[in-house]
Design a protein that fits this description.
Keywords: Signal. This protein has five helices and no strands. It has 118 residues and is mainly α. It has one domain. It is globular.
C-alpha cells in the first residue's frame, strides 16, 4: 500500500511540476503537460517513435483522469486517494505493455531516484 501511495505521489508531483500556468486546464495545457512528461520519459528510457506516440497518449489519458478525479472527488480525500491509486495501477500496467523489459527497469530506476530525492 505504501508503494502505491509513493507511485501516486510521484505521478502527481510530475503532473504538478509540469504545469505551465495556473490557468484552467483545457486540452491544450493537458497536451503540453503530456508532451513534457513524455519527453522526460524518452530521455530516461530511450523510447522509439512508436513507443513515444503510445506513451504520450497514455500520459494524456492519465493526466486527464487525474484532473477529472481531483475535480469530482475534491471533497472526499480518501476516495480521491483510492481512485488515484487505481489510475496509477492502470497506468503502470499499460506502460509495461508498451515498454521493453530493459526500458521498464530504467523507468523504475528513474522513479526510485525521483522518490528518493524528496
Amino acid at each position: 500500500m505504501k508503494r502505491i501511495y509513493t507511485l501516486v505521489f510521484v505521478m502527481i508531483s510530475l503532473a504538478s511540476a509540469l504545469s505551465f500556468s495556473a490557468v484552467a486546464d483545457n486540452g491544450t495545457s493537458l497536451n503540453a503537460r503530456a508532451t513534457q512528461l513524455t519527453r522526460q520519459m524518452a530521455q530516461k528510457v530511450r523510447l522509439d517513435e512508436g513507443q513515444y506516440v503510445k506513451i504520450k497518449r497514455l500520459n494524456l489519458q492519465m493526466l486527464a483522469e487525474m484532473q477529472e478525479a481531483k475535480t469530482r472527488l475534491s471533497s472526499d480525500p480518501a476516495a480521491l486517494d483510492q481512485y488515484l491509486a487505481e489510475v496509477q495501477s492502470h497506468y503502470e500496467w499499460d506502460l509495461a505493455a508498451i515498454l521493453w523489459p530493459r526500458q521498464m527497469v530504467a523507468y523504475n530506476q528513474a522513479k526510485a531516484t525521483m522518490t528518493a530525492a524528496k
